[in-house]
Amino acid sequence: MELWNAISSLPPSPTRFYDEMFSGQAVRPHYERVQALLSRLSFSEREARQAAMNRRLLEEGITFTLAQADQPDALERTIPFDFLPRILTAEEWDVIERGVSQRVRALNAFLRDVYHDQNIFKDGLIPRRMVLGNRYFRTEMMRMSVPAGTYITASGIDLIRDEQGRFFVLEDNLRSPSGFSYIYKSRSIMTHDFPEMYFSYPVRGLDRSLGAFRSALRHLAPGGKSDPVIALLTPGSFNSAYFEHAFLAQQMGLELVEGRDLVCRDHKIYIRSLNGLKRVDVLYRRIDDDFLDPLAFRPDSLLGVAGLMNAYRFGNVAIANAPGTGVADDKAIYSFVPEMIRYYLNEKPILANVPTYLMSRPEEREYVLERLDQMVVKETALSGGYGMLIGPSSTERERERFAEKIRDNPDNYIAQPTIQLSTAPVVLDGKLVSRHIDLRVFAISDGPNVHVLPGGLTRVAMREGSLVVNSSQGGGCKDTWVLAR
């Protein structure tokens, strides 16, 4: 009933979405200079500038692999980039920054608890079976001490803004969130190709953030080593986010390695090189738990390192993010995060969740099944826009199929009321059109300290009317500016 009360307390939807740049016919004050600069450009000038930016993305190899249902082979392409920035005021960012930091601290405390004392189960806040039966829960991590007590080094928290302009958390991404590199490349494009717009605003810089990221990884090194060897473990060049892996390794001075480049000797991890073996102290992994170590997880994995988990257990190497972290970003566990904040931090949540129905609860399941045309249904273990039903744009047949799936495996699904994501203008063929957006905010945890990158990645649903912003589903991006006070 608490969930239903939260739903019913939401104000009725207005006829228009919240627009980031316009309030009715008026331009919001912090967008006035954007509007002034834009009004000086003709359609052809806008189109030419947009084309030039996208050409630079292609020339620099800034790509993402796009999977399409009607094509068996994945397509490698640039992510559509829009030169109109998304601007957040200092006051708006203050709420986001404090809310994201609070959320990450609570999620880290939750992971520490479920892999050790499990007090949250004993106190009845979360059903034990929901966690222990989760596909991302790793019994191998039970009672294991992780370096600096940090399970979540890098996280991406997805936010949306509703019809009234309020921010809600849509998802937590805690395993190996992608998108860091696109923040930096978006900023580089704007400063290089549209400097008259960028430098007309007091935009908070990103310079400190990669340093904070490297510092957080260095902090994990066994024995407090002052100059540890840090490696980024990638699945390889065919991975959809390989550009990002190479970018981060280059920018932070990390060794870029694949599983075949590593070997375990005497419960220590080494890089094979022409000069012999080089010991690794910290491994920033961009592969899933299942593939980390064929001796501990999937025996058919060719991406990981045999013996890695034993080296981790012996305290000879740190892994970021820690194995087993995925249990905290499961979409069903997400619904309990506000309670985690109260429980572990004794604080009131700063950022609210989107109200969420658990299909494992019979009364909520029946409520949703009667209203599928109004709901967004998600498979709890999937991400990237896969395994979803968007009720208002679905067909009756699609809803029938999802209803069958929900009844067959209710634990695998959650549902949320359709939130009308905020919109922002984008330039297509020189014309301004409105598209839905969200915001992925990145946070770096260094022990108890959380650094939130100022701005984050604004993702754009490039198809008219679409609410799916994921890059893997054809979404684009914008540079996101946080204004200094």
TrEMBL record:
InterPro entries: ATP-dep_Glu-Cys_Ligase-2 (IPR051680), CP_ATPgrasp_2 (IPR025841), UCP005522 (IPR016450). It comes from Cohnella lubricantis. Transmembrane segments: none annotated. SUPFAM superfamilies: Glutathione synthetase ATP-binding domain-like (SSF56059). Residues 85-461 form the Circularly permuted ATP-grasp type domain. This is Circularly permuted type 2 ATP-grasp protein. It comes from the Bacteria.
